[in-house]
Every structure is written in structure tokens, then in C-alpha cells.
Design goal:
This protein has a two-stranded antiparallel sheet. Helix 1 crosses helix 16, helix 5 packs antiparallel against helix 8 and helix 10 packs antiparallel against helix 13. The chain has one domain. The radius of gyration is 22 Å and the shape is globular. 56% of the residues lie in helices and 4% in strands.
Length: 439
């Protein structure tokens, strides 16, 4: 199988691969599994929803933030947005500024250090819902990174595509952390000092929009509003720097392989909500259909937040998992019965033909768990390049419509569907090998 094709050749290969997966997945056994998984997902989600209470956004608080939007937009457009640290006159505040910058740089080394930093902040300040939310999302980012060096994806992606996909995942993860983590630390410092430091946010390159959000949070402590604002802010923050960036569009987002995400469901974000000591894997989450859509990414984030904080069984289970399991980047963190971080000596994934190992959420008798390396064994640290300057308020439309509600998704228990997603990737590998054998 030639994974280094270019242009029309690669598009043709992907088209045939998709057709092959669909054909294999329409076999009677797979069809029955899919129908059963979807039925079980709906049933379990409906049962959890009976005791769910989605976080609420207060209309009057939203109005207080957005009544200043026209003036804020004029100010940013006129050049009154991001400022320089030299304007900080107070020595205490200057010391705080440099301490937070150093701490952020230290924690922004890789996905594992970022994920742990979010977790630590949450346990120090549990009112910061976004810290736990970001921790869970960042775990998913790490698993996606190590998948690129794991058992399956190297069999259907070229080394060039693997590197390009990692570059995008790493840059997005690091960019969001560089913007969000100083906000969390600044709030924590203010909480200890008994004063509001939100006026210092622009010194860290944070959007002016977040200044009034944090100032209001300081007064009212409305966690759902702050979390929603951070979701909106961070997705706008990466929109121009990642999604519209010509480099990432050319090398990843516009590539034929990227369309495989929807078919193979590799763009799912899920939250383990069962302690691994029981040996039972339970996952709640959603599938992002269109990464290129800013609106879809924001609504996706809002639904995930509503799921995490609105369904007691999910929140309590996720919290137990987060407390018990240190993030390593390996999927063995949450499913040691399906994955292993230990690579079999002499294993060559590119030369050795693949044999299907999973049936539903179980290994076929005698099959070895799928290789899922720890992040440190899969990728070296990447030196973080500072974010390109600019405040998204300058180009964004009115974002108030994102603050109307926090809807709970109707179906969110995806344990069995997740396993079928792995089955699909296995079928993609088998289909790719079949295409190669016919050449």
C-alpha cells in the first residue's frame, strides 16, 4: 500500500477506502451491532436524563456583558485591544504578571503537562468549571496525538500526514492553553489576595471580551456564564490561527484523509465516567461532525459542558476517574482491557498484515490489546511559538446568540458506539490492505 501518493491518487485511494469500509460495515453482523449500539445509547441516555439538570445562563447577566459589545468592538477596531506589559505600574502586579508568564511557559511543554495543570487548578478552585472541562478535552487531545503512532492509524496514513496531523493537534492544544491558563491563574491569585485582577488580562494577550466576563464572575460567581464565555473565546482564538490558517488548511484540513474523520468517528470527544478498578469501561460524549465550522465547535463545546455538569452520574464518574488516573496520553489509561502502552518487540505495523482483534467492546479470544503509546514515547516536546497577535473581537460578528442556553444532548452514552468506531478503523485498515493487494 503506497501511503505517499499525492493529488488525485490519494483522493482516489481515500474514496475507495471509504467505499470499502461502508461495504464491510453493511455486513449483517456489523449492521446488527450498529443498531444495537444506537438503541442502547438512546436508552441509557434517556435514563440518565431523568435526573439531569443542565447548567443555566441568566438572561440579565448575559445582558450586562453584551450591552457594552458595540463600544468594545469600536475600541478594539480602533487599536485599543491588546496592550504591553510595560504599562503595568504596580510592582506587586508586575511580579504577578511575570510569575504567571513563567508558570504558563513551564506548563505548556506538552499535552501531558497542560492536562495536569488544568486538573490542578480545578481542584484548587472548583468554581472554575472550565478547568475540569478543559482537562477532559485535553485528555482527548493527547489520545488523538498518540493514536497517530499507535496500532491502527499508521497503517492508513503516510508519515507525512501523521506529522502534519500531530502538528495541528499540538498547536491547537498549546494555543488554547497559552490563552486560557493565565486567565485561570490570574483569577486564583486574585482570590488569594482578595482583589480583582481582571484588568490585567490584556497584558497576557487575552481578548478584551474576557475582561468584562471575568470582572462579572468576580462579583457574581456564575460558573456557567464564565464557562460558556471561555468556550466562545477559545474557539474564536484558534479560528484564524488554526482553522483559517493556510498552512493547516493545505497540509491537513483540505487533505483527502481528513474526510475519513466523519466516517471513522475519530473526531469524537468522550469522558470516561467509570472507575477503571471495576474493569468496566463507560464513556459519555459526542462526535464533532465539522471541525471547520466555528459555530458547530462552539455549540459542541456547550453541549459537552452541559453533559459534564448537568448529568450527576457523568460528573461524579468523571471526577472519580480524574482523581484516580494520571493522564499519560495512552488509551490504556481508561481501557486497559483493550489497549496497552507496551509495544511488542519487533512489531512493524507498516509491513505486517493486520488481523481484526475486536468484537464490540471485547478482544477476540487470544488477541493482543491494541498498541497505544504514552505521549512521551510517541512524540518529543515542541517548542511553543507565541500566538500571532490580534483580538478576535475585531473581526467577529455578534456572539450573544451563543449565550441563550446550554442544551443537554439527547444521546450521549456512547460506550458501545465508541467500540464500533474502533471496529470501523480496523475495517479501514483491512479495506486499505485489500486495495493494496488488488494492485
Amino acid at each position: 500500500m503506497d501511503l505517499n501518493q499525492s493529488g488525485n491518487g490519494r483522493q482516489h485511494f481515500v474514496d475507495k477506502l471509504v467505499a470499502g469500509v461502508i461495504k464491510l460495515f453493511k455486513l449483517p453482523a456489523q449492521t446488527i451491532q450498529l443498531i444495537s449500539a444506537k438503541r442502547e445509547a438512546r436508552t441509557a441516555s434517556a435514563r440518565f436524563a431523568r435526573t439531569a439538570h443542565a447548567p443555566q445562563l441568566k438572561a440579565e447577566s448575559v445582558h450586562c456583558i453584551f450591552e457594552a459589545w458595540p463600544r468594545l468592538k469600536e475600541q478594539v477596531t480602533a487599536g485599543g485591544g491588546l496592550t504591553d506589559e510595560k504599562v503595568i505600574g504596580d510592582e506587586t502586579q508586575r511580579n504577578l504578571f511575570y510569575r504567571i508568564k513563567i508558570e504558563t511557559e513551564h506548563a505548556n511543554r506538552n499535552n501531558v503537562t497542560r492536562t495536569e495543570a488544568y486538573r490542578a487548578v480545578y481542584f484548587r478552585c472548583p468554581e472554575l468549571h472550565w478547568a475540569l472541562f478543559a482537562h477532559v478535552i485535553s485528555r482527548n487531545g493527547g489520545w488523538n496525538m498518540t493514536d497517530l503512532q499507535g496500532e491502527l492509524l499508521p497503517r492508513i496514513l503516510s508519515p507525512k500526514q501523521i506529522e502534519a496531523n500531530f502538528e495541528l493537534l499540538e498547536r491547537a492544544n498549546a494555543l488554547i492553553f497559552s490563552d486560557a491558563y493565565p486567565q485561570l491563574l490570574l483569577y486564583e491569585a486574585g482570590k488569594k489576595a482578595g482583589r480583582d485582577y481582571s484588568h490585567l488580562l490584556p497584558q497576557f494577550g487575552v481578548s478584551r471580551f474576557m475582561v468584562q466576563v471575568w470582572a462579572q464572575f468576580w462579583r457574581k460567581k456564575e460558573s456557567p456564564l464564565l464557562t460558556t464565555a471561555l468556550i466562545v473565546n477559545e474557539q474564536h482564538f484558534i479560528e484564524a490561527r488554526i482553522v483559517r490558517n493556510s498552512h493547516y488548511k493545505r497540509n491537513v484540513l483540505d487533505q483527502p484523509e481528513f474526510q475519513l474523520q466523519a466516517i471513522l468517528q475519530t473526531n469524537a470527544v468522550f469522558m470516561p465516567y467509570s472507575a477503571t478498578v471495576t474493569g468496566e469501561m463507560k464513556l459519555a460524549g459526542l462526535v464533532l461532525e465539522d471541525f471547520s465550522s466555528l459555530e458547530e465547535r462552539i455549540e459542541f463545546g456547550k453541549r459537552l459542558y452541559a453533559l459534564l455538569y448537568g448529568v450527576p452520574e457523568v460528573y461524579e464518574g468523571v471526577l472519580a476517574f480524574v482523581r484516580a488516573v494520571q493522564h499519560s496520553g495512552s488509551r490504556a489509561d481508561y481501557a486497559p482491557h483493550l489497549f496497552t502502552a507496551e509495544r511488542k518487540p519487533g512489531d512493524n505495523r507498516r509491513r505486517k498484515s493486520y488481523k481484526q482483534r475486536l468484537r464490540g467492546c471485547s478482544l477476540i479470544g487470544g488477541a493482543r490489546p491494541l498498541y497505544s503509546p504514552k505521549l512521551a514515547e510517541a512524540w518529543s516536546d515542541v517548542l511553543f511559538e507565541p500566538a500571532e497577535p490580534g483580538d478576535w473581537v475585531d473581526w467577529a460578528d455578534d456572539v450573544q446568540h451563543f449565550f441563550r442556553d446550554l442544551p443537554l444532548p439527547p444521546v450521549f452514552e456512547i460506550t458501545n458506539e465508541y467500540c464500533l468506531g474502533i471496529n470501523k478503523i480496523e475495517l479501514a485498515v483491512l479495506a486499505a490492505e485489500g486495495i493494496a493487494d488488488k494492485k
